[in-house]
Amino acid sequence: MKAKSEDLSKPQNYRPITCLNTLYKIITSLLANKIDNHVDENQILTEEQKGCRRKTQGCKEQLIIDGIIANEAKKRHRNVSVAWLDYQKAFDSVPHSYLIDVLNIYKVNGKIVNFLQHCMKSWRTQLLVNNDRKTSVKTNPIPIESGIFQGDSLSPILFIICLNPLSRLLQSSNLGYKLKGSSTQRLSHLLYVDDAKLYAENEQDLGKLLTITKTFSENIRMKFGYDKCAKIIYKKGKKTTSQNIEHLNIKELDDTEKYKYLGLDQHLIRDTKELKDKTEKKLHTRINKILNTSLNGKNKVKAVNTWAIPTITYTFGVIQWSQTDLERIDRKIRTDMTANRIHHTNASVIRLYLPRRSGGRGLLNLEHLWKKQIINLRKYFKEKQTPLLKVICEIDSYSPLKLKNNDEPTQAPTIREKREEWQGKALHGKYPKALDSGHQTESTSWLTSGSLYGETEGFMCAIQDGVISTKNYKKCILKEDIDDHCRMCKTAPETIQHITSGCPTIAHTEYLKRHNLTAGILHQKIVTKLKLQESEDSYYTYVPQPVIETDSWKVYWDITIRTDKTVAANRPDIVLHDKQRKEAFFIDIAHPNDNNLEKTEREKITKYFELSQEYKAIYKLNKVTVLPIIITSTGIISKNMETYLSKIHLDNKPMIRLMQKSVILETCRIVRKFLNIQE
């Protein structure tokens, strides 16, 4: 039982949610699909019902139509009477006998009907009540004699089929609000599952529609929750008091009251400013809740996209948002992210809205979403050939869609266009250009895998964007009058590239530690795969043995290779010697700057060529291969990485991603530590 309000003392404030057997849910899902196909093929449902129907815009479609009707009536000073109806315990009240009759009337497959009829006879439930004494009371099985399950994918289509005869009755009543520009088209009601709204030209006609609805509902033993129903009467565009005619035992809204219809408050028309303020407040409340969680960076952005952003996108096409509004809200979201150290103030804004697989952060951009939704909604309304929507398109100069106008809004930029714009930036564009030289899928895996906290993710993006507050950044970008020489080596300009992999003062300490962690991951994976070590340790605690040797293998770690001829480069990071195949591999790891990836890879192969020839001759080997393992200081991975690792049968993507994660964490640590050093 799920509470619908804070008052838990009243039984009516609980919604029963059904926990069903998985196999049963699979079966009913298949049946729902069959019934949906039957309903669509035979055009059984009325146009006014948009609940849980394929190829419709659902709630949003009803809200747009409702808004157009209301604004047309008010601004053209027309008569209109409306009533909002809410069924009491709608799903719980459907009589099983009526449901079976309706399915037979609409010629649903007899096997499906028989299956449902048989199942409903065996429906049972039990109540389990936990009290304060930590004991529980469990009832005997209670037969379910009416109603359908909430939480079952079959229930929505069954319910809207049950209400379809009512919709047909209202449709054939020749009552309703007459749409301007049409001599015949009237709108008597809109339905979204059990949420109904009635429209009439006057109070008397509204009473007749209510009588039809009430009579039908009583006949099938369904009741209105009168405390959740309301009405309003307008004459010549102005609100008037109801005459309380027979059958209108429904509360009338006063001048200040509003009714929440499909999630949005309204009187006759909606108060756009009030709704926008409420929506923004709800949006930012949700965003801040998400940002204050312990979710990783990827999941925080995903939560914003799926839980916070929909609070505002639901209103796109329904209420008017200006480009200025959306830019301001997007800016506020970025400010919230910056306050939580997930996004750097000066980091690339374009990148924030690019997909993670393209090197971005994957955040949804409201302005772009708005453009896409407006274009898609306009296309939907204009391509639908139903009588109602045709007239709606002819009269709409009120909604944000402006359906009467044939001018199409500008398209939102594509991913390719956004990436080109990012790449074209003088400072921010350096990283995406470098990314093209590496393996893009693996190089962006630290973003797509969601293995880092948001703060670390944001800091690394700032490093890649080149906006960290180094001395060179302050001098060249912020135009401060300072000496930009490195605070450590005092020779080169203190750029972010210099800090991450170019400062000789910290090369044998910080860079070496980063390098050894990466090499240690690879070494441990090799000795584990060769069963030279039983279990794996955490990569940051693993200490490689200098020499591990068996009858088949020999593995060296950071050992000087002695040769007959003096060779300058004689200490590769790892040597893997296969005694049986008479083959050896020299593995060397490097973490250069982004723009030196390909150059470093070539240099490593050249560097160890002479040693490989000497080693081959000494041990009479068939082949010695140099394998350069290059991951830049910001995590860009060589395009050849998988090829090299496959030669030693280590085409292990999780291992590559662990090495990348280690590099990124160490680079962030190095930069933070460096910037905290006082001169």
Percent of residues in helices: 40-55%
- The tally of beta strands, per DSSP, is 20
Low-confidence stretches: none
- Largest sheet report: 5 strands, antiparallel
User: N-to-C terminal Cα separation, in Å?
Assistant: 64 Å
What percentage of amino acids are in beta strands?
A: 5-15%
Cα Rg? 34 Å
Strand order of the largest sheet: 10-11-3-12-13
Treating each run of at least 4 consecutive H or I residues as one helix, how many helices? 26
Q: On the 0-100 scale, what is the average pLDDT?
A: 92
**Shape, principal axes of CA atoms:** elongated
Derived from helix and strand composition plus strand pairing, the structural class reads alpha+beta
Protein name: Retrovirus-related Pol polyprotein from type-2 retrotransposable element R2DM-like Protein
Domain Reverse transcriptase: 1-266
